[in-house]
Amino acid sequence: MADEKTPKQKLKLYSYWRSSCSCRVRIALNFKGLQYEYIPVNLVKGEQFSPEFTELNPIGYVPQSIYQAANIVSSSIQPLQNLAVLKYIEEKVSADEKLSWATCHITKGFQALEKLLKDHAGRYATGDEVFLADLFLAPQIHGAIKRFNIDMVQFPLLSRLNDAYVELLPFQDAMPEKQPDAPPSVVS
Question: What average pLDDT does this structure show over 151-163?
């Protein structure tokens, strides 16, 4: 049992403003009402490979969360919004082909989600309360719209879910453009 006289360490979230994985964690922390210190890690500049960061997270992914020096969260698995994968693709093809590749795969995934969720969605992805699926979907939909210019008219269910997410303060506050390291050009 922790000593009540020991001051609690503030939760630290090492994050990149545009990371959908980081966005999921921000949404969850916001829903739980947990205060955290936001520590930007600029993936474009390669800060995730600095000795200081790789000491915290040897794989060099965000988000990285620290509470009492314990690694709580570390993930970056979705390839279409993973900066390393997109850079690799861009090295192999032109920027236009990269966008076309991403758009094709996002569209394919969204078509599958529309079918999968049609019999389960309520106000949110799996009912009328926010669940884990919503934390995963919201950043992906947001990124598809804002970053890859996906036309959501072809995805009415996902569009409706997105409309519900943008009404919720925990989702609003977690979005990339609201993060302290977001470039001024994307801040709305």
Answer: 97
Q: Please check the confidence at residue 188 and state whether its pLDDT lies above 80.
A: no
The pLDDT of residue 138 is above 90: yes
Reference 31, options 154, 122, 129; nearest CA is 129
Rounded Cα distance, 60 and 101, in Å: 25
For residue 57, the tally of other CB atoms under 10 A from its CB is 20
Q: Rounded distance, CA 147 to CA 141, Å? A: 10
Half-sphere exposure (CA, 13 Å, Cβ side) for 40?
Answer: 12
Coil/strand/helix, residue 172: helix
Pinpoint the alpha helices (H) of the chain: 20-32, 51-56, 83-92, 95-117, 132-146, 156-165, 169-174
Q: Are 53 and 46 in contact (CB under 8 A)?
A: no
- Distance between CA atoms of residues 57 and 181, nearest Å: 20
